Amino acid sequence: MRVWGEGPCRVVMIAGWLGTSADWAPCLQSLDPSQFSVGLFDLRGYGDRKAVPGLFSFEEAAHDLVAMVDQLGWSSFALVGHSMGAMLMQRVPLIAPGRVQGLVGIAPVPACGARMPAERLALFAGAVDDPAQRARIVALSTGQRLSSAWCSGLAQRSWERSEPEAVGAYLTEWAVNGFEGSLVDMPPATLFVGEHDPSLTHALMEATWGRWYPQVAIETVPNAGHYPLLETPAFLGGRLGAALLAVSG
Question: How confident is the model at residue 88 (pLDDT cuts 50, 70, 90)?
């Protein structure tokens, strides 16, 4: 796990289903490296760990993350997750109780998973082996507001930086499975929802995260869909920094 910055506020960032740790670079420009130490985590089969084999499960990924944090000597830390990464990060406090200071979710999939109907699940399953289908999903999830070049570029980077076997396995983890019944003694959560995200809406956050977390704040990111970290990185980075400093004290 690569670390950016050298500050006392320790954070691990987890990308979403079609992303990698490289996607956080635009947001990092809004953070002060003297305040933050950011661990950039890639799941097995993605990014820096594309060639690493595994079961490609959330349980495995959560244990990988804690092992890497232990190697850094971090006794406590905050977690930031985008989309699927936000669902995954909720497993970490369950295996490392008392160590996670707070959770920050960006377009965050709740712990119950997406629970997609069959037709929508088939659309996403088709994207496992098809970069054009990935571009279609990017366009839909950003409210069909952005250029085809932008959507295709994100999809192509995803295709180049991930293994289809891993992408398919993680799809089941976030789109079909769930573990909301396991959420106990969870840390505070701050959620950022894109104004134009058609699925992961403010109302859904209230109905899911709002029920399961004793402390949760939800903020809408203007002029963004499902990818605020890439659509409006300067704005999100500033709000993200404030949220992380608040939970870390």
Answer: very high
φ/ψ of residue 77, rounded to 5: -170, 165
Bridge partners, residue 100, by sequence: 77
Task: Give mean pLDDT, residues 171-196.
Answer: 96
Please give the Cα distance from 113 to 80 (Å, whole number).
17
Q: Find out whether 120 and 174 touch, Cβ atoms under 8 Å.
A: no
Instruction: Name residues whose C-beta falls within 8 Å of residue 200's C-beta, 6 or more positions apart in sequence.
Output: 83, 107, 108, 109, 193, 194, 226
On the question of pLDDT at 248 being above 90, the answer is no
Two tokens, residue 209: 């995260």
Q: What are the chain's domains?
A: 2-113+179-248 (3.40.50.1820)
Q: Does position 249 have pLDDT exceeding 90, yes or no?
A: no
Q: In this structure, what are the phi and psi dihedrals at residue 40, rounded to the nearest 5 degrees? A: -100, 105
Q: What is the mean pLDDT of the chain?
A: 97
